[in-house]
Design brief:
Length: 448
Amino acid sequence: MIKNQSWWYVFLLLITAWNTSNGQNEKHIIYLSWKNVVDISLEENLDLKLKSLDYEIQGLETWKSLSLFLPSLTYQGIMQRNVELPVFVFMGQKFAVGSPYNFQHSLSLSFPIFTGGSRWFNYDIQRSIKKSLKEELEGKEEETVLNSIQAYYEIILAEELNKSAEDAVSVAKQNLDQVQKFYNAGTATELDLQRAKAQYSSTLPILESTLSNKKLSMQKLKSLLNIPLTDSIVITDFLDKTEFLGEYSKMSLEEFKSLSRENRNDIRALKYQEEATNTGEKIALGQFAPSVSISASVDQAAPLENSKVRWDDYIRSKSITLSVTWPLFEGGKKILDYQIARIKSEQMDLLIKQMQFAVELDIEQNYYSYIETSKSLLSLKDALDQYQESLRISNLLYAQGMSNQLDVLNAQLLYAKSKSDYLQGIFNYNISQLALLKSVGLLNKIWE
């Protein structure tokens, strides 16, 4: 009976281990559109979560600065054993001062009435920093969305290029088979056969490269969306021309620049930081003012000859203190602090000007990139149609013996390159719109 139970326990352990291993290796299939990518990136991206936590911390720092306006209440309990009491000699006689034991309970209240405005200025600085971090968080959202959508379209591009490479391999193989037949029949030369073989061999590395790019693009998107690398992604969109700009597509360069002054998060963040540094000057000036504080305390003391203390042994005392502190000279430290604060304000002014120049340059680059990609996409489509027709005619003429095999090879190369260029052109067109929206500070319009 015991032996049967042992086998039963072993069987249960094996079943549990098998279920556990299956649960750990469980994979998920995730279906994604570009809109899903936006939503998931805003919720799951790790960099964005870190930035969000920074914003939450600053919110607590702002509340902490308000706590400086409240009084502080302190309790202190003391039990003191005087090992050796001080002894004074007076007129030849020795007197010990104090008692061997001392028990004390104190409750003190302190409140700074005036500190040169440092408390209010500190609160003002913390609010400005919080606003700055909020702008940085929104800017990080746009950056995260742009990177995620770009990675998403890179997967689609890699998939389409992979299909194009497979078509190129298939066409090259068909051409090789046809030339092989002509060669066997004596109507094609050895040179034609070697060219066909070389053409077929040259398409295989391109196919492998597109497969690798597709896998790497998948892993890149998973890392951006915080998806386990073992999960599978299914893309539901196609590489098609998408009008992300919408109503902004007809705007001029100057209109985009004007919009950026109102919507760029990084510029607004720097302006809030400028407010904080300017307030820092006021804190430095406030150091020259005196500080005024008031404190009150209630003390219960019990000096005893032994450690057996009772409540009626305590002697109560109360006090209220108004203190004024005014450091008159500290080696010039306060003057130097004020000069440093002014320099920091000047630095922030320069940073804002530098950022404004960088923003305008960024907008111009993305604007002209959008114009270039939108115009070149039409040319690429026309070229693709022409090379596709040229390939069809070349194959037909060669099959009828009216052209040589070199014409077919050239037509294949041109068509494959034209198709890849067209696919890349669609990708560039879509991404250039997103980059332009981000440079203006309007990328959030695609998910709001």
